[in-house]
């Protein structure tokens, strides 16, 4: 995959990270899920579509609250892992890009896009998501990121990534509202936007795995670069405690389908 506004147009491929995703990316804290529930969303009686579902982290963790979930992703290997991890849950998965989804009109109460809004073609997906949502349906844009300017371990991890992949643009994050492309405001009202900080516990292995699933590492480095990164990152982690907290922030935007939209 290539996006001109991401990593200076360098190629990245999520299918290369699927097994690591399955092991190391189920890290959202209770505060994340409770925030969604307190909005009255993703609960019993609702149909929810998760865009860019990856290995199905959001559906898997929220299925117990009674909503019917559908997860879609462009990567077949991500969906393969999602199905394996969800084998005891009633979740539907399919391989499809967000821009090519073809669900019937007003199929869903909620659409979620977690960690993926910048990969979507908003000109295409804005009217498409509006069409697939019921009247007053909600579109949730969700994000959680570490804070390298406030966390020494996260900062050092970023420095090592940039040493081997200077094209990576996912660095130097800070607390700010999650991206809401202007095209969505043609179909939706922005109801709410909020950010809050959380500390996420990791072991050395868990943080190393989380970093390996980063777009700038496992999805884009050559085998030689990845081997060099692995060694240096693991060496760095030998100098920190076996378990530690990484400072993160969560950023959520709640959009509601505009009334009287032609769908």
Description:
- This protein has 263 residues and is an alpha/beta fold.
- Helix content is 30%, strand content 26%.
- The chain has eight helices and seven strands.
- It has helices at residues 18-24, 30-38, 57-62, 76-85, 122-132, 152-164, 204-212, 223-237; strands at 47-51, 68-73, 91-95, 108-114, 133-146, 188-203, 243-257.
- It has a seven-stranded mixed beta sheet, with helices on both faces.
- Helix 4 links the parallel strand 2 and strand 3.
- Helix 1 packs parallel to helix 4 (76-85) and helix 6 packs antiparallel against helix 8.
- The longest helix is centred in the C-terminal third of the chain and has 15 residues, at 223-237.
Concise summary:
With 263 residues, this protein is an alpha/beta fold.
N-C termini distance: 30 Å
Neighbour order of strands in the largest sheet? 3-2-1-4-5-7-6
Mean pLDDT: 95
Query: What is the molecular shape?
Result: globular
**Helical coverage, percent range:** 25-40%
Annotation, overall tally of beta strands: 7
Largest sheet: 7 strands, mixed
Number of helices: 8
Defining traits:
7-stranded mixed beta sheet, 26% strand, alpha/beta
Write the layout of secondary structure elements.
Layout: H1 18-24, H2 30-38, E1 47-51, H3 57-62, E2 68-73, H4 76-85, E3 91-95, E4 108-114, H5 122-132, E5 133-146, H6 152-164, E6 188-203, H7 204-212, H8 223-237, E7 243-257
Parallel strand pairs: 1-2, 1-4, 2-3, 4-5
Antiparallel strand pairs: 5-7, 6-7
Helix pairs in contact: 1-4, 1-7, 6-8
């Amino acid at each position: 995959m290539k996006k001109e506004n991401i990593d200076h147009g360098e190629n990245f491929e999520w299918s290369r990270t699927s097994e690591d995703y399955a092991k190391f990316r189920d890290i959202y804290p209770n505060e994340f899920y409770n925030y969604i529930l307190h909005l009255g969303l993703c609960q019993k009686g609702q149909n929810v579509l998760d865009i860019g579902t990856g290995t199905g982290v959001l559906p898997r963790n929220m299925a117990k609250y009674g909503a019917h979930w559908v997860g879609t992703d462009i990567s077949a290997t991500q969906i393969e892992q999602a199905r394996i991890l969800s084998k005891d849950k009633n979740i539907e998965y399919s391989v499809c890009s967000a821009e090519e989804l073809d669900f019937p009109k007003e199929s869903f109460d909620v659409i979620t896009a977690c960690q993926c809004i910048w990969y979507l073609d908003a000109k295409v997906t804005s009217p498409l998501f509006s069409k697939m949502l019921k009247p007053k349906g909600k579109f949730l844009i969700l994000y959680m990121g570490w804070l390298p300017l406030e966390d020494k371990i996260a900062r050092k991890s970023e420095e090592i990534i940039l040493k081997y992949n200077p094209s990576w643009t996912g660095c130097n994050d800070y607390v700010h509202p999650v991206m809401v492309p202007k095209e969505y405001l043609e179909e939706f009202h922005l109801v709410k936007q909020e950010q809050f900080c959380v500390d996420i516990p990791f072991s050395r292995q868990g943080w190393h795995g989380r970093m390996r699933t980063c777009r700038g590492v496992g999805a884009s480095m050559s085998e030689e670069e990845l081997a060099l990164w692995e060694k240096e990152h693991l060496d760095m982690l030998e100098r920190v405690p076996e378990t530690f907290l990484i400072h993160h922030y969560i950023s959520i935007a709640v959009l509601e389908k505009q009334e009287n939209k032609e769908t």
